[in-house]
Amino acid sequence: MGLWETLPGGCCGGLKVDSVRFYKRRGLMAPTIGITTYHTNADWRGWSEEGALLPWRYVSAIRTAGGRPVLLPPGGDAAEAEATVAVLDGVVIAGGGDINPAIYGAAKHPKTSANAPDRDAWELAIADAAVRLDKPLLGICRGMQVLNVACGGTLHQHVPDLVGHEAHNGPGHGFGQHKVRVTSGTTVQSILPGGEYFDVPTHHHQAVDKIGDGLVAVGWADDGIIEAVEADAGAAKSFLVGVQWHPEQGDDMRLFTALVAAAEIFSAERTVATLPPMLAGA
Q1: pTM recorded for the entire structure
Q2: Of 123, 227, 248, 264, which one is the catalytic site residue?
């Protein structure tokens, strides 16, 4: 796996994979990160239409981290999802509403609001393709839940029933804050502080219950709710992380920086694999 190197004089030496050096890429050469979206009605300039919508903070976070964001609107089938993921360097499964509990074999809780079947099917297919193709993936809030369900896990449908408080929900139209602890020696801990509790932006009422195959819980709230998952040690995935909080709503962009760095390495390794033997250093 390559690392960014610095040449004398402070110039960026680029990413080195095997014997091939790739100089730091900008603009159209930046790693391409797909971000899933809502499919919902939107109003603008007097118009009211169906739209593929995404909070701008996701786009800004990926660009700030050095990636090139592209939107992945719902509606495609599994074949389209696989073909789409195949040409991306990384994926973000964004936050949103509740997943239909029938997908993971549960009856609907009275507080569950599942009304986006096209998004459910699309994001589950995107997650499945990303895991199988070993594409770097970051799941955020609903996105972590989608990843877990795609791997065969289940969800708690209403966290207040478990913990007896509403701290995870945040305000009705905004984000609250609570503390999370991340296990030392994990991928997430290598990116974020570990051991001590730290504050995260939050807005969710569901959470991971049974952990999906190939995943391991690595972060918890102080009330025991699972707040982060990643590929287990035996999975050897390039970057597979889910967090229950909303990093795009805070000031700490290190999860996005880590995703884009993993996508950069993935892209460079893929490029080396397609080079003629002489250029690849064989």
Answers
A1: 0.86
A2: 248
